[in-house]
Specification:
The chain is built from ten helices and six strands, in the order H-H-H-E-H-E-H-E-H-E-H-E-H-H-E-H. By secondary structure, the protein is an alpha/beta fold. The protein folds into two domains: about 110 residues, Rossmann fold; about 120 residues, Rossmann fold. The strands form two sheets. The protein has a four-stranded parallel sheet. A two-stranded parallel ribbon has the order 1-2. Strand 3, helix 6 and strand 4 form a beta-alpha-beta unit.
Length: about 250
């Protein structure tokens, strides 16, 4: 939520006269929020709310890391709300963080600019992405390859796809790494960061590395909290806002 609130602040500052609504593509997150007594609109519910208020044009900015299934579901939803009777004049969907070759290079440079400043030579950095069976997972692999060319001690892995922690662990052993920084490559440092990256079970990334003698230092800060990365999402939103102006 810290990452989301910070992003809303940035959007309101960039477009001070445009109302900003929050919506959630994840059913799991919506369920947890509702059980906690918080409002958690789906994108469809938020769009309907705006339509009922008389809004004519809407930019839906994805805060996903890659163009996976949840992002692609936004595209037919936008079309549906434009084509229905008395629907929106226009709905534009802003791209996720990684949406093309240029984004991969920009994100790699942004990541390197926000790594822990007290990191010493030969200390590794592991970025934990979510991963997916969707073809969009190729963006994690592309980012990993790009960032390795810039700094071979920085690795991008995924919880539910390749490269996983075991493959990265083996590379760290080969390189003789003794310390690793663990950072969530997720929009916010939430459930997966606290449970799967640094949790107490023997299967967390921290546990897997500590079993082979690599000390770990976690930085529990989501990608959306870094200005360098947020700027890329905001650039995609700017493009979507400009498309809204077209007739």
């Amino acid at each position: 939520m810290a990452a989301l609130d910070r992003m809303v602040e940035r959007v309101q500052k960039a477009w001070p006269n445009v109302p900003v609504f929050k919506a959630y593509t994840s059913k799991a997150i919506r369920g947890r929020m509702v059980r906690a007594g918080e409002q958690a609109d789906s994108v469809s519910e938020a769009l309907q709310r705006l339509l009922d208020q008389g809004t004519k044009r809407v930019a839906v900015q994805s805060l996903h890391m890659i163009p996976g299934s949840e992002f692609h579901d936004l595209l037919p939803l936008a079309s549906k709300f434009m084509l229905q009777e008395n629907g929106f004049e226009r709905v534009e969907v802003g791209f996720p963080l990684l949406a093309g070759e240029e984004d991969i290079e920009q994100v790699a440079q942004a990541i390197l600019s926000v790594l822990p400043t007290h990191r010493k030579a030969r200390e590794a950095v592991l970025l934990m992405g979510h991963g997916t069976l969707h073809p969009g997972n190729v963006y994690y692999e592309g980012l990993h390859d790009c960032i390795q060319q810039l700094d071979p001690d920085v690795f991008v892995g995924a919880l539910e796809a390749e490269p996983g922690i075991e493959a990265i662990r083996d590379k760290l052993m080969q390189r003789g790494v003794e310390k690793a920084f663990l950072l969530p490559f997720l929009f916010g440092a939430g459930h997966h960061a606290s449970k799967d990256m640094v949790g107490k079970s023997g299967h967390t990334w921290k546990s897997v590395l500590e079993k082979i003698g690599i000390s770990c230092e976690a930085v529990l800060k989501g990608a959306g909290e870094y200005d360098a990365l947020a700027a890329i999402w905001l650039a995609h939103l700017d493009e979507a806002m400009k498309r809204l102006e077209r007739r």
